[in-house]
Design a protein that fits this description.
There is one protein chain. By secondary structure, this protein is mainly α. The chain has one domain. The chain has a two-stranded antiparallel ribbon. The chain starts with 18 loop residues before the first helix and ends with a helix.
Length: about 140
Protein backbone atom coordinates (compact mmCIF):
# COMPACT_ATOMS: atom_id res chain seq x y z
CA UNK A 1 0.00 0.00 0.00
CA UNK A 2 1.37 3.42 -0.93
CA UNK A 3 1.68 5.92 1.93
CA UNK A 4 -1.17 8.42 1.96
CA UNK A 5 1.16 11.23 2.96
CA UNK A 6 1.79 14.48 1.19
CA UNK A 7 5.27 16.08 1.21
CA UNK A 8 6.93 16.35 4.62
CA UNK A 9 6.84 20.15 4.68
CA UNK A 10 3.07 19.98 5.07
CA UNK A 11 3.48 18.05 8.34
CA UNK A 12 5.25 20.88 10.12
CA UNK A 13 1.94 22.40 11.22
CA UNK A 14 -1.56 21.12 11.90
CA UNK A 15 -3.22 20.42 8.60
CA UNK A 16 -6.80 20.25 7.51
CA UNK A 17 -7.82 18.32 4.44
CA UNK A 18 -11.16 18.55 2.77
CA UNK A 19 -13.85 16.12 3.93
CA UNK A 20 -13.16 13.62 1.13
CA UNK A 21 -9.46 13.46 1.91
CA UNK A 22 -10.20 13.13 5.64
CA UNK A 23 -12.65 10.31 4.97
CA UNK A 24 -10.15 8.52 2.71
CA UNK A 25 -7.48 8.89 5.41
CA UNK A 26 -9.82 7.57 8.12
CA UNK A 27 -10.79 4.61 5.91
CA UNK A 28 -7.13 3.79 5.32
CA UNK A 29 -6.36 3.97 9.02
CA UNK A 30 -9.45 1.90 9.92
CA UNK A 31 -8.39 -0.75 7.43
CA UNK A 32 -4.91 -0.85 8.97
CA UNK A 33 -6.27 -0.99 12.53
CA UNK A 34 -8.87 -3.67 11.83
CA UNK A 35 -6.48 -5.85 9.85
CA UNK A 36 -4.07 -6.25 12.77
CA UNK A 37 -4.53 -8.16 15.98
CA UNK A 38 -3.33 -6.46 19.17
CA UNK A 39 0.46 -6.47 19.36
CA UNK A 40 2.07 -8.98 21.69
CA UNK A 41 2.49 -7.44 25.11
CA UNK A 42 0.17 -4.53 24.33
CA UNK A 43 -2.77 -3.90 26.63
CA UNK A 44 -6.03 -5.61 25.68
CA UNK A 45 -8.90 -4.51 23.48
CA UNK A 46 -10.22 -1.95 25.97
CA UNK A 47 -8.49 0.71 28.00
CA UNK A 48 -11.88 1.41 29.49
CA UNK A 49 -15.41 0.57 28.42
CA UNK A 50 -15.70 4.00 26.80
CA UNK A 51 -12.47 3.86 24.81
CA UNK A 52 -11.93 0.67 22.78
CA UNK A 53 -8.46 -0.02 21.37
CA UNK A 54 -9.54 0.33 17.73
CA UNK A 55 -11.16 3.71 18.33
CA UNK A 56 -8.13 5.06 20.18
CA UNK A 57 -5.66 3.75 17.57
CA UNK A 58 -7.73 5.34 14.81
CA UNK A 59 -8.10 8.62 16.71
CA UNK A 60 -4.39 8.97 17.44
CA UNK A 61 -3.26 7.85 13.97
CA UNK A 62 -5.70 10.26 12.33
CA UNK A 63 -4.77 13.18 14.59
CA UNK A 64 -1.04 12.53 14.13
CA UNK A 65 -1.49 12.23 10.35
CA UNK A 66 -3.13 15.66 10.32
CA UNK A 67 -0.33 17.20 12.39
CA UNK A 68 -2.25 17.34 15.70
CA UNK A 69 0.47 15.87 17.90
CA UNK A 70 0.24 16.92 21.55
CA UNK A 71 -2.20 15.00 23.74
CA UNK A 72 -3.62 18.27 25.09
CA UNK A 73 -4.17 19.45 21.51
CA UNK A 74 -6.07 16.27 20.66
CA UNK A 75 -8.18 16.53 23.82
CA UNK A 76 -8.96 20.16 23.02
CA UNK A 77 -9.78 19.60 19.33
CA UNK A 78 -12.00 16.53 19.61
CA UNK A 79 -15.16 18.48 20.50
CA UNK A 80 -14.39 21.22 17.94
CA UNK A 81 -13.29 19.16 14.93
CA UNK A 82 -16.02 17.22 13.14
CA UNK A 83 -13.78 14.39 11.93
CA UNK A 84 -11.95 13.95 15.25
CA UNK A 85 -15.29 13.98 17.07
CA UNK A 86 -16.62 11.37 14.64
CA UNK A 87 -13.61 9.08 15.12
CA UNK A 88 -13.88 9.51 18.91
CA UNK A 89 -17.58 8.58 18.72
CA UNK A 90 -18.49 11.84 20.44
CA UNK A 91 -16.31 11.07 23.46
CA UNK A 92 -13.50 13.28 24.69
CA UNK A 93 -10.49 11.31 25.95
CA UNK A 94 -8.30 13.20 28.39
CA UNK A 95 -4.72 14.11 27.55
CA UNK A 96 -3.60 11.77 30.34
CA UNK A 97 -5.54 8.87 28.79
CA UNK A 98 -4.16 9.67 25.33
CA UNK A 99 -0.56 9.70 26.63
CA UNK A 100 -1.08 6.46 28.51
CA UNK A 101 -2.62 4.80 25.47
CA UNK A 102 0.20 5.99 23.19
CA UNK A 103 2.81 4.57 25.57
CA UNK A 104 1.05 1.21 25.77
CA UNK A 105 0.43 0.95 22.03
CA UNK A 106 3.53 2.65 20.65
CA UNK A 107 4.54 -0.22 18.37
CA UNK A 108 1.03 -0.59 16.93
CA UNK A 109 0.81 3.16 16.27
CA UNK A 110 4.23 3.05 14.62
CA UNK A 111 3.10 0.25 12.28
CA UNK A 112 -0.19 1.96 11.39
CA UNK A 113 1.49 5.31 10.76
CA UNK A 114 4.17 3.59 8.67
CA UNK A 115 1.48 2.14 6.43
CA UNK A 116 -0.31 5.48 6.12
CA UNK A 117 2.56 7.98 6.06
CA UNK A 118 5.56 5.85 5.17
CA UNK A 119 8.17 4.62 7.66
CA UNK A 120 10.35 7.73 7.85
CA UNK A 121 7.49 10.19 8.28
CA UNK A 122 5.82 7.85 10.80
CA UNK A 123 8.95 7.79 12.94
CA UNK A 124 9.31 11.58 12.82
CA UNK A 125 5.61 12.17 13.54
CA UNK A 126 5.46 9.82 16.51
CA UNK A 127 8.76 11.21 17.80
CA UNK A 128 7.39 14.76 17.65
CA UNK A 129 4.21 13.68 19.46
CA UNK A 130 6.30 12.13 22.26
CA UNK A 131 8.53 15.21 22.44
CA UNK A 132 5.56 17.60 22.60
CA UNK A 133 4.03 15.59 25.43
CA UNK A 134 7.28 15.48 27.37
CA UNK A 135 7.70 19.25 27.00
CA UNK A 136 4.09 19.78 28.13
CA UNK A 137 4.72 17.56 31.17
CA UNK A 138 7.75 19.68 32.13
CA UNK A 139 5.82 22.96 32.05
Amino acid sequence: MQPLATPESEFTKARSFGPREDIALIKGILWEVSSRPPAAGAPGQWISREYPRQMMLTLLAFAYSRGVLASEQIEDRVPKDTMLRYVAAGRRPSAKLIRSFRRGHHDELQQILSSVLGPDEAERTLGRAILMDSVAADV
